[in-house]
Amino acid sequence: MTTALITGATAGIGAAFARRLAARGHHLVLAARDTDRLWREATDLHDRHGVEADVITADLATDEGIAAVEERLGDRARPIDLLVNNAGFGNKGRYLEVPVADELTMLKVHCEAVLRLTSAATAAMRERGRGGVVNVASVAAFFPRGTYGASKAWVTQFTQGAARDLAGEGVRLMALCPGFVRTEFHERAGMDAGNIPTWMWLDADQVVETALRDLARGKVLSVPDPRYKALLGASRLIPRGVLARASSTTGRKYGPK
Ligand SMILES: NC(=O)c1ccc[n+]([C@@H]2O[C@H](COP(=O)([O-])OP(=O)(O)OC[C@H]3O[C@@H](n4cnc5c(N)ncnc54)[C@H](OP(=O)(O)O)[C@@H]3O)[C@@H](O)[C@H]2O)c1
Hints:
alpha/beta
C-alpha cells in the first residue's frame, strides 16, 4: 500500500486522480479549500475501496495553506509516495483586463505552491530512494497566451529540469499537459466554453488513466491524447511570432470567452 497526496482533489482532474488511485488501493491525502466537500469525497472513497483517506483544508494561494501541505509531505513517519500538484484555476479576460492581484494569486497557486510542494515531497522521497510527482500543467504551456499559459510553461519546464536533476535517485517527476477537459474549471472562471469544438474535449478519467500509464513508463512529459500530440507537433514547426498570432486568433474564435 502506498499513499498519494492530491491537491485540488475535490473536483475535475484531481477528483479523477483520487478515484483512480483509490480503486488501485492507494491510501489518499486530499487537499483543497472546501472542507465539507473534501470529507464527503474522502468518506465515499474509503467506503467504496477500503483505503484510508485523510484531508487537509488548505488554500494554496496563502503561505499558511502551502505550509500545511508542506508539513504533511515532510512527515517522515507517514511517507507520501505520490504527489499530484493539480490545484489550479483560470482567470477570465485578456492581459490588462485581469487585475494584477488575480494574476499574482495564479502565480502563487500554479508556481510557488508547485515549487514548494514538489521540493518538500522530493526531499523526503530522495531519502527513501523512491516516489513520484505529477505536476498538472496544460497544453496552454506551449502557446504564448497570457499568465495562465506562462504559469503552465513554468510548471512544465521546472518539472522537466527537476526530473533531470533527480534522475537515478529513484524519484520520478512528470508534467501532465492535457487539452480542454470537462471539469468545473471554465464555469468557476465564469468562462463561456460553448465555442470549444466537441472534438477538443477530453474526459478527466481518461486523462488520468493515460497520465498514470505514462508515469509508470517513466515519461517526463505526458500529453494525454493523440489529437493534442499532433497539435503540439505541428506547433513546433511554426515560428514563434506566427504561432502567437495564430493562437491568439484561434483562441478568440474557438477558445473559452
Ligand atoms: N479543465 C481543463 O480544461 C484543463 C486543461 C488543462 C489543464 N488543466 C489544469 O488542471 C488542473 C485541475 O483543473 P480542473 O479542470 O480539474 O479544475 P476544477 O474542476 O475547477 O477543479 C479545481 C480544483 O482545484 C482546487 N483549488 C482551486 N483553487 C485552489 C486553491 N487556491 N487552493 C487549493 N485548492 C484549490 C478546487 O477545490 P476548492 O475550490 O475546494 O479549493 C478543485 O478541487 C488545474 O491546474 C488546471 O489548470 C485544466
